Amino acid sequence: MAVKRDYYEVLGVSRDASPEELKKAYRRLAMQYHPDRNPNDKQAEERFKEVGEAYAVLGDAQKRQRYDAFGHAGDGMPDLGGFSFESAFDLFDMFFGGGRRRARTGPQRGSDLRMNVEITFKEAVFGATRTIEVPRAETCPDCSGSGAAPGTSPEQCPQCGGSGQVRRSVNSVFGQVVNVTACPRCRGEGRIVSDPCPRCRGHGRVESRKTLEVQIPAGVDEDVQVRVAGEGEAGPRGGPPGDLYLAFRIQPHPTLVRRGQDLIYELPVSVPQAVLGDRITVPTVDSEAQVDVPAGTQDGRVLKLNGMGVPHIRSGRRGDQLCVVRVVIPAHLTGEHRKLYEQLGSRDGRPADVRKGFFDHLRDALRG
After folding, report:
1. Nearest C-alpha neighbor of 142 from the set 66, 204, 218, 185
2. Phi then psi for 27, rounded to 5 degrees?
3. Any bridge partners for residue 134, and if so which?
4. Which of the four, 96, 293, 365, 368, has the lowest number of CB atoms within 10 Å?
5. What pLDDT band is residue 210 in, cutting at 50, 70 and 90?
6. DSSP characters for 60-80?
């Protein structure tokens, strides 16, 4: 049998620690080792129980006095005994006001559901109405969620009297310790269904699929979730339904890339267009627009189409479309074209004048 650690050592406090210091230590350690924060971690569960047991003794003035006098129940004295995980949870709930281990006798809210919806790039920008099918648990129509066969009702559990809990008292050198656990007969429900509903087999809910028409807001992105209130799973024992949360997978656009509320388009420009200037038709998210390329435009320059980006999901204000110039250098020249280029300038082995680069132009465009 493992030897229990000193309770002061468990909480990491000195033997003359004040009640406030004990509370502070318990709060920190209980939160650190709580099973909800450490799923499937047996060691954390044991530490959570150990911390709760230590504070149950040291946090009580009389029990602390006896512990200081006699130590652990090892010198012919009865063990503290029976401090279970349920006791640790009950202490945690009492300390933090959570109440998570209370009986489940009343209606409970249904679980939330999450779904991924694939939408087009244009739908993400301008919004849309979509019809989706949601698999979920719904209240059984035959028993109205009671789980009992039509014409019958659930009965109060005779073992726990409807509380869903059973209590066991253990006397020890530190006083009486009360353990509260879920009733084994009704499994914490507080009631028993003797004649279960044939349709839901006593569960009170049935699996179903519901068709919903949902609104996708304009400007939605893949890091945004849309809440559809009351469209989650039905609550147990007639409780209210949970909510449905929609996440989105957005299909890429063939030529546009989204950056926040702005759209980026790489605009291919020929050498003559860059040198002499031109008006070029470019694609936008919903149609086309014309952009003026000034004479002498350098590669990487950003030309802005104001208000032609993505609307903000809350304010509705649209971003811009940023057209990034890509000067296309011909890879193959005809003899005539080669002569023309040779007439425009000579090759003297010196570097050309350096103009602003892509990031300089992009920074200027974003600054307005």
Report:
1. 204
2. -55, -45
3. 210
4. 368
5. very high
6. SHHHHHHHHHH-STTSSS---
Domain holding 127: CATH number?
A: 2.60.260.20
Identify whether 153 is part of a domain: no
What digits encode the pLDDT tens for the residues 127-163?
999 999 999 989 999 998 889 999 999 999 998 888 8
Decide: 110 and 242 in contact? Cβ < 8 Å.
yes
- Neighbouring CB atoms inside 10 A of 167's CB total 10
Q: Which of 61, 80, 96 is the last residue of a domain?
A: 96
CA distance 306 to 321: 7
- Residues 353, 225, single domain; the answer is no
Closest CA to 22 of 73, 56, 71: 56
Q: What is the pTM of this model?
A: 0.59
DSSP 3-state of 135: strand
Amino acid symbol at 171: N
Mean pLDDT of the chain: 83
pLDDT at 74 over 60: no
Same domain as 214, residue 80: no
Angle, CA of 179, 95 and 177, to the nearest 5°: 25
Interstrand relation of 244-250 and 113-119 (parallel, antiparallel or unpaired)? parallel
What is the spatial distance between Cα 279 and Cα 287, in angstroms, rounded to a whole number? 17
Closest CA to 204 of 154, 143, 162: 143
Q: What are the tens digits of pLDDT across the range 156-192? A: 999 888 888 887 776 654 455 567 778 888 888 888 9
